[in-house]
Write a structure and sequence with these properties.
8-stranded mixed beta sheet; 6-stranded mixed beta sheet; alpha/beta; 25 strands; Ubiquitin-like (UB roll); Metallo-beta-lactamase, Chain A; about 550 residues
């Protein structure tokens, strides 16, 4: 008997790192390969990927990867996934033309030029192993956003990706409601739907309301204007360009990803720039402040983004000053609020005027509100509902919306990452859980960094480190030189400095006891020193800095 299996490796119980495995007859189609950014306690971590061990172990079973749109939380993990799969099998990747252009750019940076990337038009039918696949045009905050319909022996699964029902989108192409209704009439087995704004009532505002509002904000600004948004929000960049052109201001792009994505958007015809409007950052000084608009990355307070560096006076090309107006044309992703608030506060310290969505309608969410989620449910009329792309609160609310439009409670499955939904001709139920956690990107390497490593980083950042070097005789095991004590990052340095003498004395006493007890192994000596010194340091400082004894035999 045929069985359909839907396994989310990311995107459930969280915002970000969306990755879903759809499986039938032991053949796999992966929908989205996203990442998310680290939380503050993930010290030294650059990116967080889904744990895709399941895909690594099943590499030869993967028919294709389908990407719904070009945002990082749906596309960003692609280079790492393909690099890990490549030694066994590298599946083809499908998506809209803009999505695939962004994917090519990412893979070029990672020197993965052998990957097969295929542009797909909405409505085009693909045969992917046991599935007939189709992309359905949706509206979101980036062009070429699509839902994915996968039809197998048991029926059709629709994964919405991120969407809203914007009737007046910037590019004039609303979601293909007629195709969604047709799929609903034909019968949809399962809907895996975006839950991001399930907690917001009504309908989301149209993207088209943002442009006029930006123009009004620009008209009131007397000095330079710096607009920060997602680098992938192509429509928003077009609106900023239009507002700048209307007020006779030049536009300069700052931030590598912003320049790269705008270049891709212009090449594909998604962005139109009047001749002479765009200037490079090095020419900013050639124009008056009231003639300039800068479009920058950094709307989420990312540590290395252009705006964050400007706020901390660390940007090589743009030095912010009093009188500048900084416009946040984005809202913080849940979890990024602290970083955004820190950036805003630094901007105020410099003397900038800061405009956020609290002050003007300068951003419209790309995710549908509750009434749009109900519209999707009524269009598709699925037999089963599996809320996706949201924390547990929003997934629960999405399920309640499903009940409100008539889906039976026992046909609504609120899962966690790694918890597969298995459907056969008779019923749907959860199967045995698979491994699904996080993989950290630290620099250019990826891996399951142990909790101990992150704990050590947190300890170092909070309480610092003591390094104690003890030199002993190879023959007797006794101390032959004055112990050396080095400390860095330890709070209350005066008290720590006074402690150095006590630490040296404690080292000598520990080594003497070890000689009497016949302890000669270096590992045992190191452990003994660590325990004794850590207890002493905590007793004196009431803190727990990292204590690292080093024993050297001579």
């Amino acid at each position: 008997m045929s069985k359909l299996r839907i396994l989310a490796l990311g995107g459930l119980g969280e915002i970000g790192k969306n990755m879903t495995v759809v499986e039938e007859d032991d053949r796999i189609v992966v929908v989205d390969v996203g990442l998310r950014f680290p939380t503050p306690e993930m010290i030294g971590i650059d990116l967080v990927l889904p744990d895709f061990s399941y895909l690594r172990e099943r590499a030869t079973d993967i028919e294709a990867i389908v990407v719904t749109h070009g945002h990082e939380d749906h596309l960003g993990a692609l280079p790492w996934v393909l690099r890990e799969l490549a030694p066994v099998a590298m599946p083809p990747v499908y998506g809209g033309s803009l999505t695939m252009a962004m994917a090519r750019s990412k893979l070029d940076e990672h020197k993965l030029r052998d990957a097969v990337l295929i542009d797909v038009q909405p409505g085009e039918s693909l045969e992917l192993g046991p599935f007939s696949a189709e992309l359905i045009h949706m509206t979101h905050s980036i062009p070429d956003s699509c839902a994915v319909a996968l039809t197998g022996e048991l029926g059709t699964v629709v994964l919405t990706g991120d969407y809203k029902f914007d009737q007046t989108p910037v590019d004039g192409e609303p979601a293909d409601i007629s195709r969604l209704a047709q799929l609903g009439a034909e019968g949809v087995l399962l809907l895996c739907g975006d839950s991001t704004n399930a907690d917001r009532n009504g309908f989301s505002p149209s993207e088209s309301v943002v442009g006029p509002e930006l123009e009004q904000v620009f008209a009131r600004a007397g000095g330079r204007i710096i607009v920060t948004s997602f680098a992938s929000n192509i429509h928003r960049v077009q609106q900023v360009i239009d507002a700048a052109a209307a007020l006779d201001r030049k536009v300069s792009l700052v931030g590598r990803s912003m320049r790269k994505n705008v270049g891709i958007g212009r090449e594909l015809g998604h962005i139109e720039v009047p001749d002479g409007l765009m200037i490079p950052p090095r020419e900013l000084a050639d124009f008056r402040d009231d003639q300039i608009v800068i479009i920058s990355t950094g709307s989420q307070g990312e540590p290395l983004s252009a705006l964050r560096r400007m706020a901390y006076r660390d940007h090589p090309q743009v030095a912010l000053r009093e009188g500048d107006t900084v416009v946040f044309s984005a809202t913080p992703i849940p979890g990024n609020e602290r970083a955004v608030n820190e950036t805003v506060d630094r901007l105020y310290q410099i003397g900038c005027d800061v405009i956020t969505t609290r002050d003007a309608a300068i951003h419209a969410s790309g995710h549908g509100y509750a009434e749009e989620l109900k519209l999707m449910l009524n269009l598709l009329r699925p037999r089963y509902l599996m809320p996706f792309h949201g924390d547990y609160k929003r997934m629960r609310l999405h399920g309640q919306l499903g009940e409100a439009v008539g889906i039976e409670p026992d046909a609504i499955f609120r899962a966690a990452n790694g918890q597969p939904l298995e459907i056969d001709a008779r019923r749907a139920r959860f199967g045995e859980s698979e491994r699904a956690g996080m993989i950290f990107v630290d620099g250019v390497d990826i891996g399951d960094i142990a909790d101990a490593a992150l704990r050590d980083r947190r300890m170092l950042s909070a309480d610092g480190i003591f390094i104690v070097v003890a030199t002993i005789s190879e023959q007797s095991g006794g101390s032959v030189a004055d112990p050396e004590v080095i400390f860095r990052g330890v709070p209350f340095m005066d008290e720590a400095g006074k402690l150095v003498g006590e630490i040296k004395l404690a080292v000598e006493e520990s080594l003497e006891r070890a000689v009497k007890d016949g302890v000669r192994e270096l590992d045992a000596l190191t452990d003994t020193l660590h325990d004794n010194l850590a207890a002493l340091v905590y007793e004196r400082l009431r803190r727990r800095p990292m204590v690292m004894p080093v024993v050297v035999e001579v």
